[in-house]
Automatic annotation (TrEMBL):
This is FeoA domain protein. Keywords: Iron. InterPro entries: Fe-transptr_FeoA-like, FeoA_core_dom, Transcriptional_repressor_C. It comes from Posidoniimonas polymericola. The lineage of its organism: Bacteria, Pseudomonadati, Planctomycetota, Planctomycetia, Pirellulales. The keyword Iron applies. GO terms for molecular function: transition metal ion binding. Residues 47-116 form the Ferrous iron transporter FeoA-like domain.
Length: 118
């Protein structure tokens, strides 16, 4: 078999790079990222927190309660942009927010709107 001989004065960096660079693809975590990667616009669905089932996950879109209740919910972590996971349905509805679980009355859960995510 014929093997070309390289002169000692040539280094590998002096040779032209004829192979394309291979890069590991970035990990895509959310459905929105996957849809964007393939050029699709993901459909965002909104639901009330009270309508969600155990295990459902959503991102808070809005909280339509009076200011005093809004302040309490925000202190507990239930505010716009926060991701919630339903742990137990019913009254009270229990959600996981960050590393805490919060129980919400059904009347309050009916006033929290979530967008689909994750």
């Amino acid at each position: 078999m014929f093997r070309p001989r390289l002169e000692s004065s040539l280094s590998m960096s002096a040779l032209p790079n004829t192979t394309p660079a291979l890069h590991a693809p970035q990990a895509l975590h959310a459905p929105q990222e996957i849809a964007a990667a393939v050029g699709l616009t993901p459909a965002v669905t909104s639901r009330l927190l009270a309508e969600m089932r155990v295990g459902d996950v959503g991102r808070v879109a809005s909280v339509s309660v009076d200011p005093a209740d809004a302040g309490r919910l925000k202190a507990l972590g239930v505010c716009a942009g926060r991701t919630l996971r339903v742990v137990s349905a019913g009254n009270p509805l229990i959600v996981q927010v960050l590393n805490s679980r919060v129980g919400l009355a059904a009347a309050i859960a009916e006033r929290v709107t979530l967008n689909s995510c994750c």
